Amino acid sequence: MKSNPLGYVFALLAFTIFSVQDAVSKHLGMAYPPVFVGMIRYWAFAAFAIAFAMRSRGGLKAAIRSQRPWLQVLRGVLLASQIPIAIGSFAIVGLAQSQAVFAAGPLFVALLSVPILGEKVGWRRWTAIGVGLVGVVLILGPNTGGFDKNVVLPLAVAFIGAIYGLTTRLVSRVDGPVTSFFYIGIVGAVELSIAGPFFWVEVLPSDWKWLILLCCTGIVGHFLLIKAYDNLAAVAVQPISYLQLVLASGIAVIIYGEVLHFNMVLGAMIVVGAGLFTVWRENVLLRQTREKAAQPDD
Fold first, then answer.
1. How many CB atoms neighbour CB 150 within 10 A?
2. What is the pLDDT of residues 140-154, one digit of tens each?
3. How large is the average pLDDT for residues 83-109?
4. 28, 109, 179, 271 - which has most CB atoms within 10 Å?
């Protein structure tokens, strides 16, 4: 697809807003159970998903129709499980360190695509994955007593996100983006509405503005991201997504007083570099495959 310059604007705005959303999530996650915060966030997200589907071609009836509904449900469960863990990670591990580990997502996608999708990964991408994993180890920063057990939180988010990404690839072969978006909103809201009441707490009046801001940033951010993908290829959006790491780290330092240690910064640079190479290489191979398929048989 041709890239529309407006797509870059949408992508930049989306990931900037997502950085604010992460900062608000950390604030709320330090005061309230992450599952409860995720449930409130998902109620707004589900309302937006329904409204978006109703305004799309074919309306709700078309959005609900899926050729692989159970795979769509699995995607919704994965994403809804990932968000409370991410909120907990921001509050316990830290916003900057969590985002640095999240940046390894493309590497985990490439790693898991072999057993899940049966894809072949060449020596270049294997090298990038290996180098990227070294970067992850640097980010996690083991001390003399070993790794902090809490680092399992951002790692879990990254792995769940990778599986979610792979299932999205599978379902995108048969379902449109409106259907996929509708299912993650509805399934996630149902899942967290079942779990959320067990974590229900009284919200301070002064914190409702933060919950409202969390919901608004989620809705606006996802809308802008949809518009970005309407105007840009996925391979063009991925590099811009790393802006979220930079902005979130800045917020972590300025607002929350987090410290960016040298090993974490170096590790993040390695992970981002390896991730960008992995995405670029995958796009090159995909383009070569399409060119070969388009060539007429002799």
1. 13
2. 876 545 567 888 999
3. 91
4. 271
Task: Give the up-direction half-sphere exposure of residue 152: CA atoms within 13 A in the CB hemisphere.
Answer: 2
At 17, the amino acid letter reads I
- Residue 53's nearest CA partner among 45, 43, 64 is 64
The whole-number pLDDT of residue 120 equals 75
Return d(Cα 21, Cα 214) in angstroms, integer: 6
pTM of the model: 0.87
- What CA–CA distance (Å, rounded) separates 41 from 43? 6
Q: Is 58 left (phi over 0), alpha (psi -120 to 50) or beta?
A: left
pLDDT bin (cut points 50, 70, 90) of residue 110 is confident
List Cβ neighbours of 18 (8 Å cut-off, separation of 6 or more).
217, 221, 244
pLDDT single digits (tens) 203-248: 999 999 999 999 999 899 888 888 888 887 777 777 888 888 899 9
Q: Both tokens of residue 125? A: 């991408």
- Phi-psi map region of 141: left, alpha, beta (phi>0 left; psi -120 to 50 alpha): left
**pLDDT of the residue at 289:** 66
Q: Give me the helix-helix angle, 5-29 and 208-231, nearest 10°.
A: 150
d(CA 49, CA 178): 9
